[in-house]
Specification:
The chain is an alpha/beta fold and about 200 residues long. Helices cover about 50% and strands about 10% of the residues. It is built from ten helices and four strands. Strands 2-1-3-4 form a four-stranded parallel β-sheet, sandwiched between helices. Helix 2 crosses helix 3. The N terminus is likely disordered.
Length: about 200
């Protein structure tokens, strides 16, 4: 037992500062950056480079965990074996067990921060939620994401009722079917460029 009668104000202040630092450290480990969290999962062949590429396209752990192999294949510089390992991991019992433990301990990685776009009538995609699927001739995935955000839009990795446009490239896959089902407007790359130039 510490004899508090011997603790002067300087020591008490130091102890308080150490306590605050400890609490901050615990909290940071409970909510780590998504990129670091993915590295920590130790998915075979999915190291720091893969984690960085995933975070350029997806903004949350849920989006990555639900991504299909078809969608992952469209991300530049992620190989077939790595994609298989990612998909298998997030479908495994090990992941489901880990996710349950994370929930019980309040552990969840931070979403990828995005720079807020200034909503202005002069920006062609102001306030619009846009999803991209398939292979595009003029853009890599992270490039079109940047273009959308720089012109006032919100880039999303998944289709929902809140989606305004689906930009459809070659081999669009399941997102095209879901967009049609939900009544989301579908445009091709040329129409996207026309909207961009307005």
């Amino acid at each position: 037992m510490v004899n508090c009668a011997k603790c002067d104000k300087k020591n008490l202040l130091y102890a308080h500062q150490i306590g605050k630092k400890f609490i901050g450290t615990v909290q940071s480990h409970k909510n780590p950056p998504l990129e670091k969290f993915l590295i920590g999962l130790s998915i075979p062949n999915a190291g720091a480079g893969t984690s960085k590429r995933l975070c350029r396209v997806y903004t949350s752990l849920d989006e990555i965990a639900s991504a299909t192999a078809e969608e992952l294949e469209r991300i530049p510089d992620i190989g077939k074996l790595t994609i298989e390992n990612i998909e298998q991991f997030f479908k495994s019992d090990d992941w489901r067990n880990l996710r349950d433990k994370m929930t019980s301990f309040g552990v969840y990685p931070q979403d990828v921060p995005k720079k807020e776009s200034v909503v202005s009538e002069n920006l062609p995609f102001a306030g619009l939620s846009i999803v991209v699927t398939g292979t595009l001739s003029g853009y890599k995935r992270y490039e079109i994401q940047t273009v959308i955000e720089q012109h006032g839009g919100k880039y999303s990795g998944s289709i929902s009722k809140k989606t305004d446009y689906l930009v459809l490239g070659l081999d669009g896959g399941s997102k095209e079917a879901k967009a049609r089902q939900l009544g989301v407007k579908i445009i091709d790359e040329q129409e996207f460029k026309r909207m961009l130039s307005k």
